[in-house]
Automatic annotation (TrEMBL), chains A, B, C, D:
Residues 315-335 are annotated as: Disordered. Gene3D superfamilies: Glutamine Phosphoribosylpyrophosphate, subunit 1, domain 1. This is Nucleophile aminohydrolase. Keywords: Glutamine amidotransferase, Hydrolase. SUPFAM superfamilies: N-terminal nucleophile aminohydrolases (Ntn hydrolases). It comes from the Eukaryota. It comes from Sphaerosporella brunnea. GO terms for cellular component: cytoplasm; glutathione hydrolase complex.
Length: 357, 357, 357, 357
């Protein structure tokens, strides 16, 4: 029952406008998820992390700040957020599923200029762990510091990227390119599915991943099942994200000249329902500059019929369904309504991108 | 929206049978309060503490273990609870109202052989703080380490006890006696009311306190208002508190030979409704050996009519109403039903004690 | 046995060039003070803090980052320092003298745009505490969150500044002015001396304070004694502070056009002895833009004879003497050599300033 | 540069008499190692842990308390130590060599009734890690939570014990027996040496391990080198360990009826030089009830000539040489003097045991 958030903008945003102030910010989500269906553990109080890129003059690595203090209690987070701006931010609140409470287990993880986070869980991880570990090149095997399935997932992502002929340690000045990152992400999921298959794991895995090299961002909404719904994922894009009314009431403004910023989030940050578009299940979302591209992931778990209703039960039991404060519809319905939502509330351009994918 | 728990028994209890295992243990309460009415802060994740007395051979002071890690994440707490037994235990989970997240702000507080905790809040504490500080003898003024209203309340309790002619630093071998402790507790509340009155504070204070010297225990359920309900408080007594069914299903057993153990708690620990008796509002409960005495606190906020219904609104807004898992009645009704509950479910002896008070 | 460091520059510095990388950085000082004479507690492992001002567009308050994790273990500190630049920085490592280990007890303290830290200790603080507390206006009395003598010293500083006719809450755009800050600092010391005198405290206090409003900085090197030496304090100024040789070898460069940056520190950060000038005992150092002014504090503890040798014993016992890595001379000698050092290594301008004071 | 301590007694000891009060207790060692030769990291402030067995009525597992707060700052440790007694205690203070600061990385590690700790380091661990990981049965591969070489060493120990035909999860009522534990320990070292050999690692490893099942204890003093000295290790045994003079002056009392307690420690806890016997390099010490047995480890790194002087350089550089406060001799000399020490200060019985080994 984690939650994550990605911000990518032409201009930097003050972190507090992103993670502290909005009525349903990720900080609020850390203790007030709207649908606390995961009765085993009703909040995200097991640590958090933010990662952001600074001026390229200060080196291409992101700055990572993690803590095992619950996000709502971390005075340092509140202070830093009010004083830090960035145009590419990852944020994550964590509820322990595997891995002890430890800073080493907090997302986002980073490796040189790359950053990675995960919302979900790798099913029967103990059963496939040895396969995964054995499949890695030494440098990624030795990189893992903590004990989460997600960090091993990152190691696998790096190893897969490496296999594509690039060196994850040394990105070109403009990054690896969004195609390369997307390819590595899809390869990561493919390899995980191979491990599941070899090990006879049939429980679905919830694999909402996000990765970036500081230039492009790639996010998945994915479940290794034909019939179950994935963990929730939304995006919003526009010209300006700003507080239109005091008290944390933020809205996305849109002008016709295209997007200046994109946010991707497990749960919408605001009550403005029209601002948030559901990412279709089993698809990969890419942000190239501020342009959003969505591609379906067409593997054995793909449903070509867009009206097929996946079951919410599994994702809800895992606490992985978040909705916007104004959104009372089940996510599957929301999915079904994607097309009309796009027509009504998001830009025509976005729709075009989705259709093209 | 804190919660507290007191255990006093003829025999020691394994701490995990008290604070970890019961279905609705104080640990569970730390993240799953049944009625999350305090929307500002829906859990008790701001630290916790336990205090317990050990063999008198090891000195009369209690052992205190506190942490700012949420109780549900503290592996040390879980490990210690499985390996520690005591016949007099205080436990507390905290939600910040005043005072930063800091071990110095975790209850229970201790001073030599005395231990103290608070569930509630002192109204407009900033307004009366200087009066309270000025009223204290130097040793209690200088004793305060943290920044909570509750610790200053403890300092006032010690100062009041001191005024009764005893030295809080050096208890007699059998303690100060339950009358002395009760007198000090009532004096503490009286002095707080005087500060409120002098400073013109009219907002009610929720003053559920618990204090012990390692021998007797005194607890209050009190609100400085004629019309509002106090924070919830329950007690249970019997011969044995044990797990009758695997999975945390605990029950209080009772045999005719009187009580062997008493528990007092902000919220019942079990689904066994008949095991828990509501402590009447504005009364003081004393445990002398394993005998429970309840006295009304007859001051300006006393309601002599037992059928008077105080308003739940204030206490609920403060997140101070906890109920048993099987108990859907508002606390005021529960109060109204005290007599019949006693007749039905608790021992006749208890009823006698309450009537006598 | 704390240590502190002030940086003020025309241009921002990368925090890691200040607090992480130099051979004898404050981080290194946190576990490797050259003269571990305080045998009771041989390091500064009780928390740390940094405070820095950001772009004025982001509000005039400083950003404060504190932690109870020893500085050398705080991965967040290391990560942030590599990604944060500022032209006015305070840094502090702490060894507990009074006050529990708690983030509330970490320096620097802040109040709106003001920041404050202390290296030393207020003698017999328990004896004067009530006097100090009673002397404060309510807003500063109520501001204190922790339990250190130093934070109460800050409250007294604010109260003294308030008495000078300004509102500490709302600084003018260019700050309160260096005269005002200096006057408030001197008033703070005067009032402390009055409390000592009234309470009959004769043990010397070590009062190295630093305060800033984001524009000017004022630091004291002070001891309330005629015969004992104060805690050590040094400064360095020049055109550029840079790593001239890999491995943390930093040096202050100077060109004839005056200073571009000033650092004040309990211990020199580098082996470059000529770069560091000892601040004379019982004087106040002011940084106005990048210009350093030093004034003697002429009260009952002043020694007008510049050749008078104060005893190092007291300050050394308190662990308050830090020296540069290349400096084996006792601090009193170093003091005696101030004039020649100035002639040899620091700019003529600095000497003029000191003489004028 | 860690330190560890083992206590095994016929009677329980109050933990504070072991880890807090002695002049040179492990708590003091955490910040005041006498010979701070490891200039890279001059203290043991990276967390600590204690493990102790309680009444067998409370289950055979040890109680583990670990913290990343430096031992000297952990108020919980001080409070618990004053209130906890045990007749079999492990204590460890840690200086990071590999593995982040995290509770998962604190020793002692435990697995059901078994407990394990390590003082030293496994050389080139990254180089042999994959071999070690691949050699483990799944249950021990999956057990590892942290990122230290030491925890993987424990996993290897469990796997080796398993290979001896016992199930580490379920010890017989009287434990596995000291022979079995010793055999597993020697097997662990042998397998590590095989990994080094296969991987071409020639840097010596410092392998002072301690393991127990709650009944017997086995400790090694070992280095994988013919010419270098191992990390220091001492033991003391007698009838009573008590404070003969206020201020932490403890002494081991001996009466002719044999030992009632044994302590094994990286550094002597007291100034009483005659109380501490150096464990010979490359030997294994077993405590069966309160009887000490010492066997040489006769492998490729064994020196049969007892007068051979190993070089202290390597162990000192690693910060692994601790001596008694009254002991200014290099450890090798102390080793050479083992025989005479035994004749003078330790019981004849002990000498006999060593000779027999």
């Amino acid at each position: 029952m984690c939650r994550f958030l990605v911000y990518k903008g032409r201009n930097p945003i003050l972190l507090s406008d992103l993670i502290l102030n909005p009525t349903h910010s990720i900080l609020t989500q850390s203790y007030d998820c709207r649908l606390r269906l995961d009765v085993r553990r009703p909040h995200n109080g097991d640590g958090f992390g933010i990662g952001y890129y600074t001026s390229p003059l200060l080196s291409p690595e992101p700055c990572i700040f993690t803590s095992t203090t619950p996000a709502w209690n971390c005075v340092n987070l509140a202070r830093l957020a009010k004083k830090t701006t960035s145009s590419l931010v990852f944020a994550h609140v964590r509820a322990t599923t595997t891995g002890a409470l430890s800073e080493s287990n907090c997302h986002p993880f980073s490796y040189h200029s790359l950053m990675f986070m995960h919302n979900g869980h790798i099913a029967s991880f103990q059963t496939i762990k040895r396969r995964l570990v054995s499949a890695l090149r030494d440098e990624y095997f030795l990189m893992v510091e903590g004990s989460t399935d997600s960090e091993w997932g990152f190691a696998l992502f790096l190893d897969t990227l490496h296999s594509l002929g690039v060196d994850p340690k040394s990105a070109p000045p403009e990054g690896f390119g969004h195609q390369k990152l997307r390819e590595a992400m899809l390869g990561t999921i493919r390899r995980l599915n191979e491990f599941f298959s070899e090990a006879g794991v049939t429980e679905p895995s919830l694999l909402n991943f996000a990765a970036t090299d500081g230039h492009s961002v790639v996010c998945t909404r994915y479940v290794s099942s034909r019939d179950d719904e994935a963990a929730s994922l939304y995006f919003s894009s526009g010209t300006r994200f700003h507080e239109y009314k005091e008290g944390g009431f933020y809205r996305m403004e849109r002008h016709d000249r295209g997007q200046d910023l994109v946010m991707v989030a497990s749960e919408p940050l605001t009550f403005e329902r029209g601002d948030w578009v559901t990412v279709p299940t089993n698809s990969v979302l890419t942000i190239n500059k501020q342009t959003v591209l969505i591609h379906p992931i067409k593997d054995q778990y793909y449903q070509s019929d867009p009206s097929y209703r996946r079951s919410m039960k599994f994702a809800e039991e895992k606490g992985m369904v978040g909705r916007g404060p104004g959104d009372e519809l089940p996510a599957t319905e929301a999915d079904g309504q994607l097309k009309s939502q796009l027509e009504n509330s998001a830009s025509q351009k976005l729709q075009a991108l989705v259709s093209a994918a």
